[in-house]
């Protein structure tokens, strides 16, 4: 049937649009109907009202479901994610040093046009004496990591369809997030191989972490990866780690040394044996501290 | 239309919700926590009903609340309540997820259950508050008041996440009839529940 054409001529000319408005709010339209209706909705206050009223009824229908409580972990994960996520349109003028903002989230079903009346007065900010990049980079990195991890998780679930695996993945992500969000200063150096970022070195005063995103899994019996601090006269081995999964993973590099965040560049090498040599055998990725 | 029946969430609730969204727009991270506290249960109940998977349902909630934090200006107060906006977003994302994730086979198998469940669900009344019970009871009564084919079409679309064409196939009904049933059922529920936009509807110049 044609949506806009009336089966009953003028009298019910709008009825087909009303039907589409209900289907649209329910997210139950076929793609072609959805496109057609979205164009109509923009110009039709009556359909906007029908869609809004349908959404109100839907919200009421949500009340008639078995009561259910999400896990406490979700509240913590949400809090952590909010903590490291910048708002789309910051209240403060954007500084030139800020990285590009996180991409816009998809708009919700009710294609509401943004209004500006929710704008609030600017909130005062406590001055931060750290250099600008130190303030913003960890946030940017973690936001990117969170986004990547979330997409990985969706992929895992599709492939395995296994609830235990999904839960294990979620727990692992949570640990990774916690580790990345550990308080304190951190120096961030994305490391590249052949022009592709294969990992990120996160150096703190007493600990080095590597977020591996594209390093091959190594044979942990007779090889090891080594992180090197560069920029001095000779490379300084900071510690060994193994890559155990081709997926994104956070490895904490065993090292008892301090002052690990003093280098201007970091490199990763693959080494025969399980101990760092005094000089890297084969550097597989390298990168500058971002500044 | 809502002289007798009270909307499920009162005007005061609506005003408090609006204030929370204003705080989010002002950059107050704690307001996201408060919104979560307020809506986590209906949001989770809805997402897990659509997805039949608690882990995926929690992912949807995280996605929804985080996107509210990122872009609170997506809320348009002239288009309805915070509750309906938020739960519509939960529904939309849950349905997207179920369409992404479910294999054709699983979906077919689950359709059988959904047809059974198109009768309103029973609450267990274990943890819910008295007020929640009253609301649920009103909704259940309203749903029961619908002719069965209308109830079936709406619950399959809303709780099951099926498109109008899928509902038509599942119920062996022409697509046009399904569309008509959904519209008629929605109008009737709206009148019974009094869940039109608070105060007045937009055609009357709705101000809020």
Sheet-strand content of chain A, in percent, reads 15-25%
Low-confidence segments of chain A: 1-11, 91-140, 145-161
CATH class identity of the largest domain in chain A: Mainly Beta
Alpha carbon gyration radius of chain A: 26 Å
Largest sheet report of chain A: 4 strands, antiparallel
Cross-sheet strand order for the largest sheet of chain A: 1-2-3-6
Shape of chain B from CA axes? globular
The number of helical runs of chain A is 6
Instruction: Please give the number of β-strands of chain B.
Output: 0
The DSSP helix count of chain B reads 9
Kindly, what is the distance between the CA atoms of the first and last residues of chain A, rounded to a whole number of angstroms?
Answer: 60 Å
Overall mean pLDDT of chain B stands at 79
CATH class bucket of the largest domain in chain B: Mainly Alpha
Determine the oligomeric state from the structure.
Answer: heterodimer
Task: Walk me through the structure.
- The complex is a heterodimer of chains A (291) and B (208).
- Chain A folds into 3 domains: 1-68, Arc Repressor Mutant, subunit A (Orthogonal Bundle); 71-85 and 130-181, no CATH class; 187-288, Immunoglobulin-like, CATH 2.60.40.
- Chain A is built from 6 helices and 8 strands; from the N terminus they run ααααααββββββββ.
- Chain A has helices at 15-25, 31-41, 45-61, 72-83, 132-160, 163-180; strands at 187-193, 196-203, 208-212, 223-230, 236-241, 249-253, 265-272, 282-288.
- In chain A, α1 (15-25) packs across α2, α1 (15-25) crosses α3 and α5 (132-160) packs antiparallel against α6.
- Chain A is elongated and about 85 Å long.
- The model of chain A is unreliable at 1-11, 91-140 and 145-161 (pLDDT under 50).
- By secondary structure, chain B is mainly alpha-helical.
- Chain B is built from 9 helices and no strands.
- Chain B has 2 domains: 1-101, Rna Polymerase Sigma Factor, Chain: A; 127-198, Arc Repressor Mutant, subunit A (Orthogonal Bundle).
């Amino acid at each position: 049937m044609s949506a806009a054409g009336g089966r009953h001529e003028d009298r019910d000319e709008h009825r087909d649009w009303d039907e589409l408005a209900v289907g649209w709010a329910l997210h139950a339209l076929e793609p072609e109907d959805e496109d057609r209706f979205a164009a109509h909705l923009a110009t039709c206050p009556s359909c906007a009202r029908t869609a809004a009223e349908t959404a109100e009824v839907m919200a009421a229908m949500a009340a008639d479901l078995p009561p259910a409580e999400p896990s406490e972990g979700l509240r913590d994960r949400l809090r952590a994610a909010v903590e490291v996520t910048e708002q789309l349109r910051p209240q403060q003028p954007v500084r030139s040093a800020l990285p590009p903002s996180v991409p816009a989230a998809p708009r919700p079903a009710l294609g509401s046009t943004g209004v500006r009346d929710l704008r609030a007065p600017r909130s005062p900010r406590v001055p931060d004496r750290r250099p600008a990049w130190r303030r913003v980079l960890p946030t940017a990195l973690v936001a990117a990591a969170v986004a990547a991890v979330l997409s990985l998780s969706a992929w895992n679930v599709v492939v395995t369809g296994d609830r235990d695996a999904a839960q294990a993945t979620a727990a692992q992500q949570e640990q990774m997030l916690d580790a990345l969000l550990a308080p304190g200063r951190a120096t961030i150096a994305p490391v590249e191989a052949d022009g592709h970022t294969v990992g990120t070195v996160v150096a703190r005063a007493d600990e080095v972490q590597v977020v591996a995103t594209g390093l091959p899994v190594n044979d942990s019996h007779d090889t090891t990866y080594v992180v090197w601090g560069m920029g001095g006269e000779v490379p300084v081995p900071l510690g060994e780690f193994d890559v155990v999964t081709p997926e994104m993973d956070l490895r904490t590099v065993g090292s008892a040394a301090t002052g690990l965040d003093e280098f201007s560049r970091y490199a990763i090498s693959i080494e025969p044996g399980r101990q760092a040599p005094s000089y890297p055998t084969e550097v597989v990725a390298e990168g500058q501290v971002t500044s | 239309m809502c002289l007798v029946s009270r909307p499920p969430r009162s005007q005061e609730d609506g005003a408090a919700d609006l204030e929370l969204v204003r705080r989010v727009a002002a950059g107050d991270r704690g307001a996201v926590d408060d919104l979560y506290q307020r809506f986590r249960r209906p949001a989770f109940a809805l997402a897990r009903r659509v997805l039949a998977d608690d882990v995926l349902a929690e992912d949807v909630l995280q996605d929804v609340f985080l996107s509210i934090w990122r872009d609170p200006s997506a809320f348009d107060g002239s288009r309805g309540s915070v509750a309906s906006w938020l739960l519509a977003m939960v529904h939309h994302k849950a349905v997207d997820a179920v369409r992404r994730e479910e294999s054709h086979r699983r979906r077919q198998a689950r359709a059988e259950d959904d047809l059974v469940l198109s009768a309103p669900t029973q609450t267990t009344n274990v943890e819910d508050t008295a007020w929640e019970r009253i609301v649920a009871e009103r909704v259940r009564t309203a749903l029961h008041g619908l002719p069965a084919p209308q109830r079936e079409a709406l619950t399959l679309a809303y709780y099951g996440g099926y498109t109008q064409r899928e509902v038509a196939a599942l119920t062996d009904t022409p697509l046009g009839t399904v569309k008509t049933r959904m519209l008629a059922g929605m109008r009737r529920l709206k009148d019974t529940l009094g869940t039109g936009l608070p105060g007045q509807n937009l055609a009357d110049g709705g101000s809020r």
